[in-house]
Amino acid sequence: MKIAIASGKGGTGKTTLSTNLAAFLGEHEAVVLVDLDVEEPNSNLFLNKELLKKEDKMKMIPRWDSTSCTLCADCVQNCNFNALLCIANEILVFPNLCHSCYACSELCPTGSLPMEPQKMGELSHFLANNIEFVEGRLNIGEEQAVSLIAQTKKYVDVHFEEESIKIFDSPPGTSCPVIEAIKDADFVILVTEPTPFGLHDLTLAVETTRILKKHFGVVINRYGMGNDDVVNYCQRECIPILGKIPHLVEAAKLYSAGKLIYQEIPSFKDEIENIALHVKNFSQGVGQ
Question: What distance in Å separates the CA atoms of residue 6 and residue 174, rounded to the nearest whole number?
Fold first, then answer.
């Protein structure tokens, strides 16, 4: 079962929920925690881990072969991402704009744009106490996260049993990286906070999740710091609230120290337990 933990904005507590929920479930279940926020992965900060495997991840980028090119510029016309430019007697390739779609290479009449591998990041596989932990990490300066997210998900599919619970700590927002992270999920947990910004971005995340036709629920983090607008919105939209994680200074201190919160704050653990119950019920066909 695949559980994606997402949010409409950054800083709502996705990683807090992902790490604590994974560790809690891992006490009795086979759990894989996957950090798909590849531009700024930080789940690793909260886990005592042992590195099992690390591998480079590559993307395919066209290389212009001037010896066979006739400068017809078909490649420029075929590229939907403006990654190619024809100037005078040269085809310029902009790797950071390339989406590795192969259109320029496959449709070139003279075969003048062969695709070649270029490192874009790394994948690391750790054993973290009672859970497996997989992290994708994009190289600094790389602008295309989708390919690394897809390759990280593929690694998880190949190396872990379907019966295990896979928790995807997803990127924030509603852009392409988020779509890639949650599109194969069985259930999506949207984490928000009881603030005007939290509510605004939650509505965007809800719209995105509904378009993808995913089962989902909401977790309100830092509950008690704002107002009830998020609760009222969820009630109007018939969205299940899976948990209300209390706003506690003690929790912030533990987070800042890189510690798992549920192990030390009973009220936090109660909410994690409720969320875990929703996850288990859904996996058994009792949920939505």
Answer: 9
Instruction: For residue 184, give the amino acid letter.
Output: D
Name the token pair of 142.
Answer: 């790389």
Strands (E), the chain: 2-7, 31-35, 50-62, 84-87, 90-93, 115-128, 131-138, 165-172, 187-192, 215-223, 241-246
User: Phi first, then psi: what are they for 140, rounded to 5°?
Assistant: -60, 130
C-alpha closest to that of 181 among 41, 50, 58: 41
How far from 134 is each of 33, 120, 146, 189, 279, CA to CA, in Å?
A: 6, 17, 16, 19, 20
Residue type present at position 150:
A
Whole-structure pTM value: 0.91
CA distance 174 to 178: 6
pLDDT digits 0-9 by tens, 131-148: 999 999 999 988 889 999
With beta carbons less than 8 A apart as the criterion, state whether 191 and 17 touch: yes
